[in-house]
């Protein structure tokens, strides 16, 4: 049994409880596997944190805003600064592209975390 259970990563509820190998939040119902060393330091279970252009830590499901205009191959117009991208997914991408997402009007693509900020 873990003595100091971490708060819920989704809603920050501190009344989490242990159920078998999972930690469960009674308020939002989120379940996750606690990481022994990563839980106290705030790092995700994957081991590396992804930060946006201004230093905010990003998580799966976040909404971000593009901070500078981006060119897109095969498109006459690029992605404009200020475009909102919902429900991102963090990946170990190629060439620094660590966000997998769908941009409205462009479709599925990968973005660099250095060109977005958390909304």
TrEMBL record:
InterPro entries: YjdM, YjdM_C, YjdM_N. SUPFAM superfamilies: Prokaryotic SH3-related domain, Zinc beta-ribbon. Signal peptide: none annotated. Pfam families: YjdM (PF03831), Zn_Ribbon_YjdM (PF08274). Residues 50-119 form the Protein YjdM C-terminal domain. Residues 5-32 form the Protein YjdM N-terminal domain. Belongs to the YjdM family. NCBIfam families: phnA. PANTHER family: PROTEIN YJDM (PTHR30305:SF3), PROTEIN YJDM-RELATED (PTHR30305). This is Zinc ribbon domain-containing protein YjdM.
